[in-house]
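Re: folding output
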Amino acid sequence: MPHALTTKGQVTIPKHIRDALHLQPGTAVEFTVNAQGEVVLHPVANPGVRSAGPADRFDAVRGAADIRWRTDELMKLLRADD
């Protein structure tokens, strides 16, 4: 069954292929083109720097700030007249 390409260049991977490759949301994949001109989809076992990331988007930045602001200092800074 053919699948239409979106204006963003996206296409849905059919469920039977996702199931066969054990692809879950957030799984890193890699596309290659073989000698016959066919596109081959490979799940990436060790995506290296890229990963699915934390389940909660806030976990990605939690504890990343290196400045400890006190609430009153921050509010004074944000409300200061220029």
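--- second protein (sequence, then structure) ---
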Amino acid sequence: MAAAVNSRGCAGALLASARRELRFLRRNPADLVLVTVFPLAMLAALAWLLSAAVIRDLPIAYVDQDGGTLGRALARRLDASPGLRVAAQPRDLAEAWSLVRSLQVYAVVYLPANAARDLQRLGSGTVFSYYNASYLTAGQGASRDIAAAVGAFNLQVLQEEIALRSGPGALRRPPVTVQSAILFNSARSFEYFLLGLLFPAVLHLVACLAMAGSLGREIRDGTQAAWLAQSGAPGCAVAGKLLPYFLLFAGYGLLGTGYLIVLHGSIGAVQFAMLLLAQLALYAACAAIATLLVGLTRDMGKALSFVGLYVGTAMAFSGATFPVVDAPLFTRVWNTLLPLTAYVKLQAQQLTMGAPALVSLPALGTLLLFVLVPALIGLRAYLRAADAAAAAA
């Protein structure tokens, strides 16, 4: 009987606290916009900005100091590559470097003088490629497409030279060839890769900020002790206060995941269930982390600052953009202490790779630890802050 009363008391405190928070949002349009219109606008903006999906027509400079038919043929081959556009043909490398420094081109292809003569006399020639590593994605993309275009051009020239010297009968396949294939995201879509990282990174940052602001506001306004005392079940009241934000951002996360599924094509029911569980765990972890930071700092401004420091760095240290296998110890430790690391790993396994659910259970278990451990410590600290405020009053 007592357990039933306690359960009803907890449910009542949870719902009453949730309704109280919703009333606050209705009375404060600015706060309401920050947790409704703003996240949706960010998702739409990111999807629109990355809708091109694949980088096309990267501008490059082509310096042809040979001046013969070989150089002109190579220029046509480079310009015909879908990922490249010969935007300029400067007279020398000095002029090409000025184009690179002014960001008019991302790479330079240099054909030295007498390249055609060396090819005929020595049987080989050299084409130089330089790319701007300051803009790593664009530079590496240009370098990759230049290598592919020059490789195809090289094969064509080699076949023509052998046919001219020894006759068409001498042409044969090379004894060893490399056949490479891209696994998962074979289209090399930047939209699919980046949105899969940016959607959860941005949403869980805004969710943590909103939740920390919600809890910290009670301390700032001096209403924490009275609110929790009136609830009758303080722990359930804290959960109820965070419930609207949890449901909102879990819905946004599901919307973003649905968009990625549309880009991907389709996934199985088991993969979708795992993604849904991971979404719920990620935003529950946001609630737990917000409670922990507010409870430990007992100050809204400090808590929001720590959220920005901790959660704001998650995307850079998640291991999705740069590998952390051989990184410094601090980087590897920080990577392990971020819930986004586990979520991005699970999402890649289930959404992109179609892995069995068992493979992602460790990542899901890690997310649940990010819910339980901060929640237990943070709730205790937050309630102690309320007791201290009540005693001081």
